[in-house]
Amino acid sequence: MNADTLYWLFSTIAQTYGAIVGIIGMLTIYRLQTLSNQMENCRKNAEESVKISVGLNMSLLDAENLVKAWINKPQDQIRKIKESSLDRFNIINREVEKINKCIKQRNDIRHDFKSFIFSHVSMIILAIILLTQVTLLASWELMYIFIVFLVFPAWLMFSAFIIISLCLDLVKG
After folding, report:
1. pLDDT tens, 127-161?
2. How many CB atoms lie within 10 A of CB 35?
3. How far apart are CA 108 and CA 31, in angstroms?
4. Is residue 72 within a helix (H) or strand (E), and if so which, with residue range?
5. CA 79 → CA 41, 53, 58, 168, distances in Å?
6. Contact assessment for residue 59 and residue 47, using Cβ atoms and an 8 Å cutoff
7. Cα–Cα distance between 46 and 56 in angstroms, integer?
8. Mapping DSSP to helix (H, G, I), strand (E, B) and coil, where does residue 52 land?
9. pTM listed for this prediction
10. CA distance 121 to 123
11. Closest Cα to residue 84, out of 55, 57, 54?
12. How many degrees, rounded to 5, is the angle at CA 125 between CA 121 and CA 129?
């Protein structure tokens, strides 16, 4: 293979990975916004249920701080809320559990996306570096065979696994 073939190969790889990063980034941001909206709705539902309760002004708290305030609330105040209205108490507990679930999903998505970005941006950088060296690589047949037939397919399989797992995480939510 000549330098032109290698040039087009590495150029296509860099562009393809750039597009994949953009699409997955868009889906990730959409999913994170959806989780944020769910957490805010749960916070509002809990706030409506607690308006009568004493000692916790939930309108000033965001969803995460609401969970912390509810969990750290003194047991005697929780008992008062439970005694005054068991339904309100159950609604608040249910909404706090939903917020906790959303927080866990959000943290998992952030972690997966960081791994995804690291692996794919490193692939783009590798392709660009090799793109600048196509004339040198074309003259080294052994090096060319190693890069094209061993390194890239292994990295592509790893990348495909990460893309599929991240997409499944985004869709299952």
Report:
1. 888 888 777 777 766 566 666 656 666 777 777 77
2. 20
3. 12
4. none
5. 25, 11, 18, 41
6. yes
7. 11
8. coil
9. 0.71
10. 5
11. 54
12. 170
